[in-house]
UniProtKB/TrEMBL annotation:
GO terms for MF: G protein-coupled receptor binding; G-protein beta/gamma-subunit complex binding; GTP binding; GTPase activity; metal ion binding
Key words of the record: GTP-binding, Lipoprotein, Magnesium, Metal-binding, Myristate, Nucleotide-binding, Palmitate, Transducer
Keyword GTP-binding carried by entry: yes
Record: residues binding Mg(2+): S50
The protein, known as: G-protein alpha subunit
Sequence positions that bind GTP: D208, P209, S210, G211, Q212
Gene Ontology CC annotations of this record: cytoplasm; heterotrimeric G-protein complex
Cited InterPro entries: Gprotein_alpha_su, GproteinA_insert, P-loop_NTPase
Originating organism: Crepidotus variabilis
SUPFAM superfamilies the UniProt entry points to: P-loop containing nucleoside triphosphate hydrolases, Transducin (alpha subunit), insertion domain
GO biological process: adenylate cyclase-activating G protein-coupled receptor signaling pathway
Signal peptide: none
Amino acid sequence: MGSSVSRVRPAKSAGQMHSDALDSIIVQDQARLKQVRRILVLGTSGSGKSTLMKHMRIHDGTEFKETDVTLYRSIICRNVIEWAHSILLLAKKDALVFEKGYHRELADKVLDFTLGNDDEREIYLPNDIAEAIHQLWNDPMTANSLKEHAKELNLELPTYFFDNIRRIGGPTYRPNRSDILKTPETARKPGLREMKINMGTLTIHLLDPSGQRSERRKWIHYFEFVTSIIFCAPVADYDQARMTESFNLFESVINSRWFLRTSIILLLTKMDEFKQKLPKIPLEKSFPEYTGGADVNKAAKYILWKYMQLNRARLSVYPHIVNVCDTNVSCLVLAAVKETTLQNWLKDSGRL
Ligand SMILES: Nc1nc2c(ncn2[C@@H]2O[C@H](COP(=O)(O)OP(=O)(O)OP(=O)(O)O)[C@@H](O)[C@H]2O)c(=O)[nH]1
Ligand SMILES: [Mg+2]
Protein backbone atom coordinates (compact mmCIF):
# COMPACT_ATOMS: atom_id res chain seq x y z
CA MET A 1 0.00 0.00 0.00
CA GLY A 2 1.43 3.32 -0.89
CA SER A 3 1.32 6.05 1.65
CA SER A 4 -0.39 9.23 0.70
CA VAL A 5 1.22 12.46 1.66
CA SER A 6 -1.16 15.34 2.13
CA ARG A 7 0.34 18.65 1.18
CA VAL A 8 -0.81 21.66 3.06
CA ARG A 9 -0.42 24.84 1.15
CA PRO A 10 0.95 27.72 3.11
CA ALA A 11 -1.61 30.48 3.72
CA LYS A 12 -1.33 33.35 1.27
CA SER A 13 -0.28 36.68 2.50
CA ALA A 14 -2.67 39.61 2.07
CA GLY A 15 -0.26 41.08 -0.49
CA GLN A 16 -0.18 37.86 -2.52
CA MET A 17 -4.00 37.65 -2.52
CA HIS A 18 -4.23 41.21 -3.71
CA SER A 19 -1.75 40.47 -6.48
CA ASP A 20 -3.66 37.30 -7.51
CA ALA A 21 -6.91 39.27 -7.63
CA LEU A 22 -5.27 41.82 -9.88
CA ASP A 23 -3.89 39.06 -12.13
CA SER A 24 -7.34 37.55 -12.46
CA ILE A 25 -8.84 40.94 -13.42
CA ILE A 26 -6.13 41.37 -16.05
CA VAL A 27 -6.73 37.85 -17.45
CA GLN A 28 -10.50 38.52 -17.60
CA ASP A 29 -9.92 41.85 -19.30
CA GLN A 30 -7.58 40.25 -21.80
CA ALA A 31 -10.16 37.57 -22.55
CA ARG A 32 -12.75 40.29 -23.15
CA LEU A 33 -10.34 42.18 -25.34
CA LYS A 34 -9.64 39.01 -27.30
CA GLN A 35 -13.26 38.89 -28.37
CA VAL A 36 -13.87 39.02 -32.04
CA ARG A 37 -15.13 42.42 -33.09
CA ARG A 38 -17.64 42.28 -35.89
CA ILE A 39 -17.43 45.31 -38.09
CA LEU A 40 -19.94 45.82 -40.81
CA VAL A 41 -18.93 47.85 -43.85
CA LEU A 42 -22.02 49.58 -45.24
CA GLY A 43 -22.80 52.16 -47.93
CA THR A 44 -24.58 52.47 -51.26
CA SER A 45 -23.46 50.52 -54.28
CA GLY A 46 -20.17 51.89 -55.61
CA SER A 47 -19.34 53.73 -52.38
CA GLY A 48 -16.00 51.92 -51.99
CA LYS A 49 -16.77 49.09 -49.52
CA SER A 50 -15.09 46.29 -51.46
CA THR A 51 -12.17 48.53 -52.40
CA LEU A 52 -11.66 49.15 -48.69
CA MET A 53 -11.70 45.39 -48.06
CA LYS A 54 -9.05 44.90 -50.75
CA HIS A 55 -6.86 47.46 -48.93
CA MET A 56 -7.35 45.59 -45.69
CA ARG A 57 -6.25 42.35 -47.35
CA ILE A 58 -3.09 43.97 -48.63
CA HIS A 59 -2.41 45.54 -45.23
CA ASP A 60 -3.01 42.22 -43.49
CA GLY A 61 -0.40 40.57 -45.70
CA THR A 62 -3.06 38.28 -47.17
CA GLU A 63 -1.79 38.82 -50.68
CA PHE A 64 -4.09 38.02 -53.54
CA LYS A 65 -3.92 34.37 -54.52
CA GLU A 66 -2.90 33.40 -58.05
CA THR A 67 -6.51 32.42 -58.83
CA ASP A 68 -7.70 35.87 -57.68
CA VAL A 69 -5.07 37.59 -59.81
CA THR A 70 -6.06 35.69 -62.97
CA LEU A 71 -9.71 36.41 -62.22
CA TYR A 72 -8.92 40.12 -61.92
CA ARG A 73 -7.03 39.93 -65.22
CA SER A 74 -10.13 38.61 -66.97
CA ILE A 75 -12.36 41.27 -65.31
CA ILE A 76 -9.92 44.01 -66.35
CA CYS A 77 -9.69 42.73 -69.95
CA ARG A 78 -13.47 42.41 -70.25
CA ASN A 79 -13.97 45.90 -68.78
CA VAL A 80 -11.35 47.42 -71.09
CA ILE A 81 -13.03 45.93 -74.18
CA GLU A 82 -16.51 46.93 -73.00
CA TRP A 83 -15.40 50.52 -72.29
CA ALA A 84 -13.49 50.73 -75.59
CA HIS A 85 -16.54 49.51 -77.54
CA SER A 86 -18.98 51.93 -75.84
CA ILE A 87 -16.67 54.91 -76.30
CA LEU A 88 -15.68 54.06 -79.87
CA LEU A 89 -19.27 53.54 -80.99
CA LEU A 90 -20.08 57.08 -79.88
CA ALA A 91 -16.80 58.55 -81.10
CA LYS A 92 -17.14 57.07 -84.58
CA LYS A 93 -20.03 59.45 -85.10
CA ASP A 94 -17.44 62.27 -84.95
CA ALA A 95 -16.85 61.69 -88.64
CA LEU A 96 -14.05 64.24 -88.95
CA VAL A 97 -11.87 62.49 -86.40
CA PHE A 98 -12.34 59.05 -87.88
CA GLU A 99 -12.19 59.92 -91.54
CA LYS A 100 -8.46 59.22 -91.60
CA GLY A 101 -8.08 55.69 -92.95
CA TYR A 102 -5.81 54.37 -90.21
CA HIS A 103 -7.97 55.80 -87.40
CA ARG A 104 -11.01 54.12 -88.88
CA GLU A 105 -9.08 50.88 -89.30
CA LEU A 106 -7.87 50.92 -85.68
CA ALA A 107 -11.36 51.69 -84.37
CA ASP A 108 -12.91 48.90 -86.47
CA LYS A 109 -10.24 46.46 -85.37
CA VAL A 110 -11.10 47.08 -81.70
CA LEU A 111 -14.86 47.08 -82.37
CA ASP A 112 -14.66 43.74 -84.21
CA PHE A 113 -12.78 42.11 -81.38
CA THR A 114 -14.52 40.06 -78.66
CA LEU A 115 -12.95 38.09 -75.81
CA GLY A 116 -15.03 34.94 -76.17
CA ASN A 117 -16.18 32.55 -73.48
CA ASP A 118 -12.98 30.67 -72.72
CA ASP A 119 -12.06 29.64 -69.21
CA GLU A 120 -11.77 32.95 -67.29
CA ARG A 121 -8.20 32.04 -66.29
CA GLU A 122 -7.19 31.95 -69.94
CA ILE A 123 -8.62 35.37 -70.84
CA TYR A 124 -6.10 38.01 -71.88
CA LEU A 125 -5.97 41.03 -74.17
CA PRO A 126 -3.99 40.37 -77.39
CA ASN A 127 -1.06 42.76 -77.85
CA ASP A 128 -2.30 44.11 -81.21
CA ILE A 129 -5.70 45.11 -79.72
CA ALA A 130 -3.97 46.77 -76.74
CA GLU A 131 -1.72 48.59 -79.20
CA ALA A 132 -4.72 49.78 -81.28
CA ILE A 133 -6.39 51.19 -78.14
CA HIS A 134 -3.10 52.78 -77.10
CA GLN A 135 -2.70 54.53 -80.47
CA LEU A 136 -6.27 55.85 -80.52
CA TRP A 137 -6.10 56.95 -76.87
CA ASN A 138 -2.79 58.78 -77.38
CA ASP A 139 -3.27 60.23 -80.86
CA PRO A 140 -4.13 63.96 -80.53
CA MET A 141 -6.66 63.60 -83.36
CA THR A 142 -8.75 60.99 -81.56
CA ALA A 143 -7.81 61.36 -77.88
CA ASN A 144 -10.06 64.35 -77.18
CA SER A 145 -13.04 62.75 -78.79
CA LEU A 146 -12.53 59.50 -76.84
CA LYS A 147 -12.01 61.32 -73.53
CA GLU A 148 -15.09 63.49 -74.06
CA HIS A 149 -17.22 60.42 -74.79
CA ALA A 150 -15.83 58.61 -71.73
CA LYS A 151 -17.01 61.60 -69.66
CA GLU A 152 -20.38 61.61 -71.42
CA LEU A 153 -20.82 57.95 -70.49
CA ASN A 154 -19.73 58.83 -66.94
CA LEU A 155 -16.82 56.43 -67.21
CA GLU A 156 -13.98 57.60 -65.01
CA LEU A 157 -11.90 54.47 -64.93
CA PRO A 158 -10.91 53.96 -68.58
CA THR A 159 -8.43 56.81 -68.18
CA TYR A 160 -6.35 54.79 -65.72
CA PHE A 161 -6.59 51.50 -67.63
CA PHE A 162 -6.20 53.06 -71.10
CA ASP A 163 -3.15 55.01 -69.89
CA ASN A 164 -1.65 51.65 -68.91
CA ILE A 165 -2.99 49.64 -71.85
CA ARG A 166 0.38 48.50 -73.23
CA ARG A 167 1.24 46.94 -69.88
CA ILE A 168 -2.19 45.27 -69.75
CA GLY A 169 -1.87 43.67 -73.21
CA GLY A 170 -0.42 40.19 -73.67
CA PRO A 171 -0.74 36.76 -72.03
CA THR A 172 1.90 37.44 -69.36
CA TYR A 173 0.09 40.47 -67.85
CA ARG A 174 -0.40 40.16 -64.08
CA PRO A 175 -2.55 42.90 -62.51
CA ASN A 176 -0.60 44.81 -59.86
CA ARG A 177 -2.06 46.09 -56.56
CA SER A 178 -3.09 49.38 -58.06
CA ASP A 179 -4.90 47.63 -60.97
CA ILE A 180 -6.72 45.35 -58.51
CA LEU A 181 -7.71 48.26 -56.26
CA LYS A 182 -9.12 50.14 -59.22
CA THR A 183 -11.11 47.24 -60.66
CA PRO A 184 -14.83 47.56 -60.04
CA GLU A 185 -16.32 44.39 -58.69
CA THR A 186 -19.76 44.84 -60.18
CA ALA A 187 -19.05 41.98 -62.58
CA ARG A 188 -18.62 39.67 -59.60
CA LYS A 189 -21.45 37.93 -57.81
CA PRO A 190 -23.37 39.99 -55.25
CA GLY A 191 -23.26 38.66 -51.71
CA LEU A 192 -21.15 38.88 -48.58
CA ARG A 193 -17.40 39.24 -48.57
CA GLU A 194 -15.69 38.78 -45.26
CA MET A 195 -12.24 38.66 -43.74
CA LYS A 196 -10.61 38.37 -40.34
CA ILE A 197 -7.73 40.57 -39.31
CA ASN A 198 -5.63 39.87 -36.23
CA MET A 199 -4.52 43.01 -34.46
CA GLY A 200 -2.55 42.00 -31.38
CA THR A 201 -5.09 40.72 -28.88
CA LEU A 202 -8.00 41.68 -31.13
CA THR A 203 -9.55 39.81 -34.01
CA ILE A 204 -11.54 41.98 -36.31
CA HIS A 205 -14.15 40.35 -38.46
CA LEU A 206 -14.99 42.62 -41.38
CA LEU A 207 -18.21 41.97 -43.28
CA ASP A 208 -18.86 43.57 -46.67
CA PRO A 209 -22.35 42.93 -48.02
CA SER A 210 -23.34 44.14 -51.48
CA GLY A 211 -24.80 47.65 -51.48
CA GLN A 212 -27.14 47.03 -54.39
CA ARG A 213 -30.65 48.00 -53.42
CA SER A 214 -32.10 44.52 -53.98
CA GLU A 215 -29.43 43.04 -51.69
CA ARG A 216 -29.91 45.45 -48.79
CA ARG A 217 -32.82 43.64 -47.19
CA LYS A 218 -30.38 40.77 -46.53
CA TRP A 219 -28.18 43.05 -44.42
CA ILE A 220 -30.36 42.44 -41.37
CA HIS A 221 -28.87 38.94 -41.07
CA TYR A 222 -25.50 40.44 -40.25
CA PHE A 223 -26.70 43.08 -37.77
CA GLU A 224 -26.47 40.99 -34.61
CA PHE A 225 -23.36 41.33 -32.45
CA VAL A 226 -21.96 44.13 -34.58
CA THR A 227 -19.61 46.32 -32.57
CA SER A 228 -18.91 49.00 -35.15
CA ILE A 229 -20.02 50.05 -38.57
CA ILE A 230 -17.81 51.56 -41.22
CA PHE A 231 -20.13 53.61 -43.40
CA CYS A 232 -18.67 54.56 -46.80
CA ALA A 233 -20.07 57.89 -47.97
CA PRO A 234 -18.85 58.85 -51.46
CA VAL A 235 -18.47 62.66 -51.38
CA ALA A 236 -17.81 62.86 -55.12
CA ASP A 237 -21.44 61.88 -55.75
CA TYR A 238 -22.68 65.30 -54.57
CA ASP A 239 -24.19 66.16 -57.96
CA GLN A 240 -25.93 62.80 -58.42
CA ALA A 241 -29.17 61.27 -57.18
CA ARG A 242 -26.93 58.64 -55.52
CA MET A 243 -26.05 61.29 -52.89
CA THR A 244 -29.64 61.44 -51.62
CA GLU A 245 -29.67 57.64 -51.58
CA SER A 246 -26.53 57.66 -49.45
CA PHE A 247 -28.00 60.24 -47.01
CA ASN A 248 -31.20 58.19 -46.72
CA LEU A 249 -29.28 54.99 -46.15
CA PHE A 250 -27.07 56.59 -43.49
CA GLU A 251 -30.13 58.00 -41.76
CA SER A 252 -31.86 54.62 -41.61
CA VAL A 253 -28.68 52.86 -40.43
CA ILE A 254 -27.72 55.37 -37.74
CA ASN A 255 -31.20 55.67 -36.28
CA SER A 256 -31.94 51.96 -36.46
CA ARG A 257 -32.93 50.20 -33.23
CA TRP A 258 -30.35 47.53 -34.10
CA PHE A 259 -27.43 49.84 -33.57
CA LEU A 260 -28.22 51.61 -30.31
CA ARG A 261 -24.85 50.58 -28.88
CA THR A 262 -22.82 50.59 -32.06
CA SER A 263 -20.23 53.18 -32.96
CA ILE A 264 -19.99 54.40 -36.51
CA ILE A 265 -16.85 55.19 -38.47
CA LEU A 266 -18.02 57.50 -41.22
CA LEU A 267 -15.59 57.36 -44.13
CA LEU A 268 -15.99 60.10 -46.68
CA THR A 269 -14.72 58.27 -49.78
CA LYS A 270 -13.75 59.29 -53.31
CA MET A 271 -11.98 62.44 -52.15
CA ASP A 272 -9.67 62.36 -55.19
CA GLU A 273 -12.65 62.55 -57.56
CA PHE A 274 -14.23 65.19 -55.33
CA LYS A 275 -11.15 67.43 -55.59
CA GLN A 276 -11.19 67.22 -59.38
CA LYS A 277 -14.92 67.74 -59.69
CA LEU A 278 -15.44 70.62 -57.27
CA PRO A 279 -13.93 73.43 -59.40
CA LYS A 280 -15.97 72.25 -62.42
CA ILE A 281 -19.32 71.50 -60.77
CA PRO A 282 -19.96 73.89 -57.82
CA LEU A 283 -21.36 72.31 -54.68
CA GLU A 284 -23.81 75.25 -54.50
CA LYS A 285 -25.60 73.82 -57.52
CA SER A 286 -26.75 70.84 -55.48
CA PHE A 287 -26.78 72.55 -52.06
CA PRO A 288 -27.74 76.25 -52.53
CA GLU A 289 -27.25 77.01 -48.81
CA TYR A 290 -23.53 76.07 -49.02
CA THR A 291 -21.34 79.19 -49.16
CA GLY A 292 -17.74 77.89 -49.02
CA GLY A 293 -17.01 78.01 -52.77
CA ALA A 294 -14.48 75.60 -54.29
CA ASP A 295 -12.47 75.14 -51.08
CA VAL A 296 -12.17 71.34 -50.82
CA ASN A 297 -11.90 71.29 -47.02
CA LYS A 298 -14.92 73.52 -46.51
CA ALA A 299 -16.93 71.54 -49.05
CA ALA A 300 -16.02 68.17 -47.48
CA LYS A 301 -16.80 69.54 -44.01
CA TYR A 302 -20.17 70.77 -45.25
CA ILE A 303 -21.05 67.29 -46.58
CA LEU A 304 -19.84 65.76 -43.32
CA TRP A 305 -22.07 68.21 -41.43
CA LYS A 306 -25.04 67.11 -43.60
CA TYR A 307 -24.40 63.49 -42.59
CA MET A 308 -23.98 64.38 -38.93
CA GLN A 309 -27.36 66.19 -38.95
CA LEU A 310 -28.97 62.80 -39.55
CA ASN A 311 -27.58 61.36 -36.31
CA ARG A 312 -30.73 61.81 -34.23
CA ALA A 313 -29.91 58.71 -32.17
CA ARG A 314 -26.73 60.51 -31.04
CA LEU A 315 -24.50 57.51 -31.68
CA SER A 316 -20.75 58.00 -31.45
CA VAL A 317 -19.65 58.89 -34.96
CA TYR A 318 -15.97 59.01 -35.87
CA PRO A 319 -15.63 60.79 -39.20
CA HIS A 320 -12.62 60.36 -41.49
CA ILE A 321 -11.92 61.73 -44.91
CA VAL A 322 -10.12 59.25 -47.17
CA ASN A 323 -9.27 58.39 -50.71
CA VAL A 324 -9.99 54.70 -50.87
CA CYS A 325 -7.49 54.26 -53.72
CA ASP A 326 -4.74 55.66 -51.49
CA THR A 327 -2.65 52.84 -50.05
CA ASN A 328 -2.49 54.42 -46.55
CA VAL A 329 -6.21 54.08 -46.07
CA SER A 330 -5.97 50.68 -44.37
CA CYS A 331 -3.67 52.12 -41.64
CA LEU A 332 -6.13 54.93 -41.05
CA VAL A 333 -9.08 52.57 -40.88
CA LEU A 334 -7.31 50.14 -38.55
CA ALA A 335 -6.35 53.03 -36.27
CA ALA A 336 -9.99 54.20 -36.27
CA VAL A 337 -11.21 50.66 -35.55
CA LYS A 338 -8.71 50.32 -32.68
CA GLU A 339 -9.77 53.66 -31.24
CA THR A 340 -13.49 52.88 -31.39
CA THR A 341 -12.92 49.39 -30.00
CA LEU A 342 -11.03 50.84 -27.07
CA GLN A 343 -13.68 53.52 -26.48
CA ASN A 344 -16.45 50.88 -26.54
CA TRP A 345 -14.56 48.66 -24.15
CA LEU A 346 -13.88 51.52 -21.75
CA LYS A 347 -17.56 52.45 -21.83
CA ASP A 348 -18.73 48.83 -21.36
CA SER A 349 -16.41 48.24 -18.45
CA GLY A 350 -17.49 51.45 -16.74
CA ARG A 351 -14.03 52.97 -16.97
CA LEU A 352 -15.27 55.91 -19.03
N1 LIG B 1 -11.19 57.41 -57.53
C1 LIG B 1 -11.68 56.63 -56.57
N2 LIG B 1 -12.34 55.53 -56.92
C2 LIG B 1 -12.83 54.76 -55.94
C3 LIG B 1 -12.69 55.09 -54.57
N3 LIG B 1 -13.32 54.12 -53.85
C4 LIG B 1 -13.81 53.24 -54.72
N4 LIG B 1 -13.52 53.61 -55.99
C5 LIG B 1 -13.91 52.93 -57.22
O1 LIG B 1 -15.33 52.87 -57.27
C6 LIG B 1 -15.75 51.63 -57.85
C7 LIG B 1 -16.75 50.93 -56.93
O2 LIG B 1 -16.11 50.61 -55.72
P1 LIG B 1 -16.50 49.29 -54.88
O3 LIG B 1 -15.51 49.22 -53.76
O4 LIG B 1 -16.61 48.10 -55.75
O5 LIG B 1 -17.94 49.70 -54.35
P2 LIG B 1 -18.92 48.87 -53.36
O6 LIG B 1 -19.32 49.82 -52.29
O7 LIG B 1 -18.28 47.60 -52.90
O8 LIG B 1 -20.15 48.57 -54.31
P3 LIG B 1 -21.21 47.33 -54.24
O9 LIG B 1 -20.42 46.06 -54.10
O10 LIG B 1 -21.98 47.42 -55.52
O11 LIG B 1 -22.08 47.57 -53.05
C8 LIG B 1 -14.46 50.84 -58.09
O12 LIG B 1 -14.14 51.00 -59.45
C9 LIG B 1 -13.42 51.51 -57.24
O13 LIG B 1 -12.13 51.41 -57.83
C10 LIG B 1 -11.98 56.30 -54.23
O14 LIG B 1 -11.81 56.69 -53.07
N5 LIG B 1 -11.51 57.02 -55.28
MG1 LIG C 1 -18.79 45.60 -53.17
